[in-house]
Amino acid sequence: MKENRKIILLIILALIFISLLLFIGVNEKNYSYAMSKRIPRILAIVMTGIAISTSSLIFQTITDNRILTPSILGLDSLYIFIQTSIVFLLGSSSKLIVNFNLNFLITILVMALFSTFLFKYLFKITGNNLMKLLLIGVIVGTLFESLSSFMQMIIDPNEFMHIQDKMYASFNVINKDILKVASIIIILSYIYIYKNIRKLDVISLGRNHAINLGINYDKLNTGLLIIVSLLVSVSTALVGPITFLGLLVANLAREYINTYKHTYLIITSCLLSIIFLVGGQFIVEKILNFGTPISVIINLVGGIYFIFLLVKENIK
After folding, report:
1. Is 175 left (phi over 0), alpha (psi -120 to 50) or beta?
2. Cα–Cα distance between 305 and 245 in angstroms, integer?
């Protein structure tokens, strides 16, 4: 009951922030136009928040490490590499850049194939060793970053401006068709997570305990890692990379709700993520007049919290 009251408080806060972002500045004359622009933006924020928070929480449970996020696997770097490669090879006027739907589908497809290769084959080659897999992810991510930087340095400055827009998360322009595809992927991912939600509680005990309690640890881990990758791919392709948001909300959820049950942890982290994103977008729109991308605010707060976690662990 204590957890339920805390979750209800977060729901109320989330609804207040959403209402502020949705209705401030709206009157009878501009109601239809404002709603047609703001409702898709709110939906994009909610879906991004759900995808990032859920993927980060599950990833930390699998790796048994609270300072890791799925970005360590190199997915954010891969996203920038894909966008840079398209502009470098085909130009910014290519259909793969101009057509948002096509760009979204291509990006999701490449990132999903990369994730499947990483988890389906490299995971087996490394003897199902998660630490080796993470090390490979770091190396591959660094490779993508280096290749992207090289192409960005020799590309035409006008073309680079198109890549720069992709490097920062933004909710200012939302494509409704992309939202439909993203929502389908998120719903299918959540069906898989719901079926295994109680097994996540067991996995949090550690590999040996989980196997002794009858969990098919390696098979479930591979499935969950692919789901994590899909959710990260969707959120990154939808708005751009937000590195520290997952780290921030997953840890705050564990501190706030103080339980091992992932049913509560996932709901809490999703609500915190929505509150942070909606609140951040409100500051960007109403206070900063779109002068700063929301990812800058999130990464600043998340970076400070990351340093706090490191200092806290050293003190222990």
Report:
1. beta
2. 10
Sign of CA dihedral 200, 127, 244, 153: negative
| Alpha carbons 8 and 235: distance in angstroms, whole number | 25
pTM: 0.82
Q: Which domains does the chain carry?
A: 1-7+35-315 (1.10.3470.10)
pLDDT tens-digit map of 256-283: 887 888 899 999 999 999 998 888 888 8
Please provide the size of the chain in residues: 316
Task: Say which residue the tokens 């990369």 belong to.
Answer: 114
Mapping DSSP to helix (H, G, I), strand (E, B) and coil, where does residue 24 land?
Answer: coil
Q: How far is CA 264 from CA 5, 24, 228, 256, 292, in A?
A: 11, 32, 18, 11, 33
d(CA 118, CA 221): 13
CA nearest 123: which of 196, 140, 131, 209? 131
Residue 265 and residue 259 in contact, taking contact as beta carbons nearer than 8 Å: yes
